[in-house]
């Protein structure tokens, strides 16, 4: 398997990886235009635009878009994150030209029919309502908001209902004109793909696009804070975050190993101490998320209103304890989980294509798997303990609570426990 890369004269990038033995391919266009690239008045428009991509083009109706891919047994979808929007498909080898033609069509020739905008506006408002009715969804939006208050990175991807209700066709066209330049687009493909053929097709489909001025996203600053809402639910949903390294920082793999050892599986410290030994919850986990210049190590759990104080306190205790006695065996186990997750995941061409796009967006190149594994291997127990110590000394964590929270500790309580 060999990664090949090419850049058109206008900045449009193509990156592919052929996986011998496969009869299918995953390919798509990743656009560096996510939630953090929106102005305040645009919050939610990147996601709205993703929905509108499938609602018709100058040459295909919404039904024809779906039929074009499904007639050959393929699958097409899209998603919006805080840093990217992706439009992708999975098809058989002989249908890659068709898939790229459909994806290019929805990107380059959307009609944004006013009637379809109103239909999809209703769909998105229902999606927002569903998210607000799902506590373990809304809690992470709240956590993001208090971690990065008043910043694009702290806003919800779906956007508030009042903004979504007001977006016009002109707003959609304007966002495309500002953010969908060829230099912001990456064509990534993996599986049964022919690199030279894709480059030729990309030149034909995207080579005519004129570059647009690059707009740098606002620098994000992790500030921390607290948001809680008392509601008569069965459980308190508890989310706690500490600032972590961005994905270009040399400590990113240390952070991932630390969060895995802390709460990444059934053998992790939080799972063993809080669920297995004390029975305080059903779900508890820790994870690391990263952006260009910042990141978060997040702990999530659900427990009763009577037990939230004990659970939150024990979470702080386990973070502090990791700074002193994180063992070589725990680090090695977390390292093995990371490597296995990476390598097993990349047996899928969809995961390969996703990695190609993300690495190209971050590094403007695709590090080899050997390079990535070597960086994971380089993390020492001392590195993990040092990061745990930095986390335990944090003065600005972020916390969100939702449910019967009357007996829940305040953020100040947890900060005092960290400092004790």
What does this structure look like?
The chain has 420 residues and is of the alpha+beta class. The protein contains 16 helices and eleven strands. The strands form two sheets. Strands 1-2-6-3-5-4 form a six-stranded mixed β-sheet, sandwiched between helices. A hairpin with a 4-residue loop joins strand 9 and strand 10. Helix 9 (252-263) packs across helix 12, helix 9 crosses helix 15 and helix 11 (308-325) packs across helix 15 (381-392). It starts with a strand and ends with a helix. The model has no long low-confidence stretch (mean pLDDT 96).
How much helix is in the residues? 40-55%
Following the backbone from N to C, one meets helices and strands in this order, namely EEEHHEEHHHHHEHEEHHEEHHHHHEH
Mean pLDDT: 96
Radius of gyration: 23 Å
Alpha-carbon distance between the two ends: 52 Å
Shape: globular
Please tally the helical runs, counting DSSP H or I stretches of 4 or more residues. 16
Number of strands: 11
């Amino acid at each position: 398997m060999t990664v090949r890369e090419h850049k058109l004269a206008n900045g449009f990038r193509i990156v592919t990886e052929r996986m011998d033995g496969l009869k299918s391919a995953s390919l798509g266009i990743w656009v560096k235009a996510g939630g953090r690239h929106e102005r305040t008045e645009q919050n939610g428009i990147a996601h709205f635009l993703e929905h509108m991509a499938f609602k018709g083009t100058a040459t295909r109706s919404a039904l024809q878009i779906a039929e074009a891919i499904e007639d050959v047994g393929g699958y097409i979808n899209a998603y919006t994150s805080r840093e990217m929007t992706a439009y992708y498909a999975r098809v058989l080898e002989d249908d890659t030209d068709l898939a790229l033609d459909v994806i290019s069509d929805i990107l380059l020739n959307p009609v944004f029919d006013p009637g379809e905008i109103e239909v999809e506006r209703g769909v998105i408002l229902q999606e927002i309502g569903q998210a607000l009715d799902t506590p373990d969804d809304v809690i992470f939006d709240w956590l993001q908001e208090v971690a990065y208050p008043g910043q694009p990175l702290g806003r919800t991807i779906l956007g508030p209902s009042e903004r979504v209700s007001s977006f016009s066709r002109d707003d959609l066209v304007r966002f495309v004109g500002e953010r969908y330049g060829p230099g912001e687009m990456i064509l990534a493909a993996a599986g049964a793909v022919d690199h030279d053929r894709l480059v030729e097709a990309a030149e034909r489909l995207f080579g005519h696009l004129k570059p647009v001025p690059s707009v740098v996203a606002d620098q994000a600053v992790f500030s921390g804070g607290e948001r809680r809402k008392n509601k008569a639910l069965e459980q308190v949903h508890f989310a706690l975050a500490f600032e972590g390294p961005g994905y270009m920082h040399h400590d990113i793999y240390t952070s991932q190993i630390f969060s895995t050892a802390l709460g990444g599986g059934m053998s992790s410290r939080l799972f063993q101490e809080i669920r297995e030994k004390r029975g305080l919850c059903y779900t508890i986990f820790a994870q690391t998320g990263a952006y260009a210049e910042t990141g978060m190590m997040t702990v999530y759990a659900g427990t009763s209103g009577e037990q939230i104080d004990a659970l939150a306190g024990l979470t702080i205790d386990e973070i502090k304890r990791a700074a002193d006695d994180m063992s070589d065996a725990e680090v090695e186990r977390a390292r093995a989980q990371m490597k296995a997750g990476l390598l097993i995941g990349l047996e899928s061409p969809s995961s390969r294509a996703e990695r190609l796009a993300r690495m190209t967006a971050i590094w403007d190149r695709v590090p080899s798997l050997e390079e990535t594994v070597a960086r994971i291997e380089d993390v020492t127990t001392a590195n993990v303990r040092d990061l745990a110590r930095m986390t335990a000394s944090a003065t600005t964590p972020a916390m969100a609570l939702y449910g019967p929270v009357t007996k829940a500790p305040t953020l100040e309580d947890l900060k005092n426990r960290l400092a004790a």
